Amino acid sequence: MTTKLMGQPVQRTEDQRLLRGRGRYADDVAVxxxxxxxxxxxxxxAHARIVDIxxxxxxxxxxxxxxxxxxxLTGPMxxxxxxxxxxxxxxxxRTQYAxxxxxxxxxxxxxxxxxxxxxxxxxxxxxxIEVAYDLLPPVVGIDAARAAEHLVHDDVPGNVAARMEQATxxxxxxxxKAPHTLTLDLTVERSACTPLEGRGTVARxxxxxxxxxxxxxxxxxxxxxxxxxxxxxxxxGQVDVVTPDVGGGFGVKINHPWPEELLVxxxxxxxxxxxxxxxxxxxxxxxxxxxxxxxxxxxxxxDDDGRLLALDVRFWHDHGAYIPYGLIVPxxxxxxxxxxxxxxxxxxxFESLYTNTxxxxxxxxxxxPQGCYAMERTMDAIAGFLGKDRTEVRAANFIQPDxxxxxxxxxxxxxxxxxxxxxxxxxxLEKIKALVGWDDFxxxxxxxxxxxxxxxxxxxxxxxxxxxxxxxGAHVHIxxxxxxxxxxxxxxxxxxxxxxxxxxxxDTLGCRFEDVEVVTGDTRRMPYAVGTFASRAAVMxxxxxHLAALRAREKVLRIAADALEAAEDDLEINDxxxxxxxxxxxxxxxxxxxxxxxxxxxLRYAFDEKSRVATQFTVGDPGKPPVAEDDEPGLEGKDFYSxxxxxxxxxxxxxxxxxxxxxxxxxxxxxxxxxxxxRLINPxxxxxxxHGGVAQGVxxxxxxxxxxxxxxxLLNASFMxxxxxxxxxxxxxxxxxxxxxxxPLNPLGIKGAGEAGVIPSAAxxxxxxxxxxxxxxxxxxxxxxxxxTLRQEHS
Length: 795
Known about the structure:
Elements: H1 15-19, E1 36-42, E2 48-54, H2 56-59, E3 64-68, E4 103-104, E5 110-116, H3 119-128, E6 130-135, H4 142-147, E7 160-167, H5 171-177, E8 180-188, E9 200-206, E10 211-216, H6 221-232, E11 239-242, H7 259-271, E12 275-278, H8 281-287, E13 294-302, E14 308-318, H9 328-336, E15 346-353, H10 368-386, H11 390-397, E16 406-411, E17 417-420, H12 425-436, H13 441-450, E18 454-466, E19 472-478, E20 484-488, H14 497-509, E21 516-520, H15 537-564, E22 571-574, E23 577-580, E24 590-592, H16 593-599, E25 636-641, E26 647-659, E27 666-676, H17 683-702, E28 734-738, H18 761-773, E29 779-780, H19 784-794
Parallel strand pairs: 1-12, 8-29, 10-11, 14-15, 20-21, 27-28
Antiparallel strand pairs: 1-5, 2-4, 2-6, 3-5, 7-15, 8-13, 9-10, 9-12, 13-14, 16-17, 18-26, 19-20, 19-25, 22-23, 23-24, 26-27
Helix pairs in contact: 6-7, 9-10, 10-11, 10-18, 14-15, 17-18
GO molecular function: iron ion binding; oxidoreductase activity
Pfam families: Ald_Xan_dh_C (PF01315), MoCoBD_1 (PF02738), MoCoBD_2 (PF20256)
Organism: Nocardioides terrae
């Protein structure tokens, strides 16, 4: 009998290859000898007009094959890069060109593109290009953008790309009636994705077939394919995009196209050679994408129990010099801010602002950490004002289990109603309190204080919209060997897709887990897909794979029933063998999946038992075509899954910290997580995602920030200066518990989990440090020097 694998901690199948250095990343692609290499001239200024570009010192250098500036681009390549997600509120959307036209708007913007025999020559050639600039005043930071004394784009008034408002009632009237009110001013500084692997693209043009093959480190291979075809004037069928192993994405690789993803294919076709670009670490800091930066103003009205009667939030979002990914990040902040709570009236207004800094695209959490920070700081403030336990105030505002589905009365990032599908927040609160020892902490805090030690405990709750549409597809093919080949279009960046998806197929189809091979991110295998982001892979591709496997299973049973002379309903599939229910496999009539695959093709019967190669056509039943009108040869299933709206996972994190009374160093003593992502496919993988997210969250809360000076220069664009937590700074053990409230929106009852670990980090650390120090934190991240300064201010 096949063991059901759904919910089992199956060891990841991809790990041995990756851990032994057998991964194959974009920079490892060596498709032909004589591959050419690229380098990019990037702006040293945050804001300037380009007066002149002189490339004469480059063209005669031995080993340099070509150089492009904007003036060399034609047709669609000379147009701005696409605005990927338009929105009615985005009235002043601006995107950059593949190479800067007339002016540069941030340090790191691409100006010229050089192709040479190797990267060293290309870099040397870039250094020979001379550019004359007319410097302009830079706009750096939200305060400067709001002041609008200078403009990033001359035709964008006030530096405001968009202003958006949503409300569920009359917030002024509700606020006026509230017994108590508070206001908070909060800030979250910029941070960034810092994956192990930066961006990389390789392209090869085949003049004999007029086909372009592209390998790129991306989170959306099909999106890259579409834009490369459009920009280069090719038919979609002329372009194949393959995503090899990706050494981390975290959101920065969902933006498409990056200029290099167009310039490399352009050069490959023009030169008839394979061309490669691999980003270095400084380039990643100054020319990829950042996130997080917001300034928030919160006004809240509440009663004596801490219930939210009115919540009025206004925030300003720094999206950098361009806005290719639209308003996704601030929309998520504005809607996911509510978390598991139900204020009687809520209004949120945000402005998304241009600055002369690196553009912003989603970074793991994608606006949720900022929203959670605003809401949880507000909850702590209410508890402090009323003298209540922080858990008591939260419990007073929870959506109750019998209130699902719960409509928050807002529109989410997918354009659908913000309607939560399932959850049990009171039960989750009890779990996290028990896990972290919440009720026993006051005694422990007093004990530590008697020893001269400062400790604090923090709590943060969140709800995460996951599984955003519009669709994903899957193809399941059973080969005559009995192996099952599965293809889905989204990409993988280490999430364990090959393992989790194989578990689903093995359960649905009844085959052996080890017989399933999963391929992702290859447009040759699945030309239509969306991508891996927004905690959507398990929900979207998982559901599509399940549906496709069901289709394959139906055909298996139909063919096997005919071969075994049994009714389909009487058959079962276990370990890749079809048999009549109740009959022993060793004695009853059975047929394996490989044989069923042979029988699915009318070119069959005369085949070698070992190789299963068909050599003879069989007529089958007289009077009927060998392949029925509603059928096709082969044993496979294909399906797409498109949800009516997003699923909503949830979680609560708690942390105990110690702050050194002399150095203000912050140490983590205990970290606990309770998470609800619906039915678990593989709890080991989910916990791995949580561990990774917590590590990233520790970095975002205590270490990582993008430090710009007033001229727009990024001062810490290296791992020497940009602080990241080592394993010594991440909790040794994270106590994790799960709550499973299945989603009714998909056939597996699952919700996403990929971003859960990072969402509440700023909020939970702010809560714990505030508890240890006795004053409220209003700005994150916080360093020991920041804390030392705050102590002096509050002394």
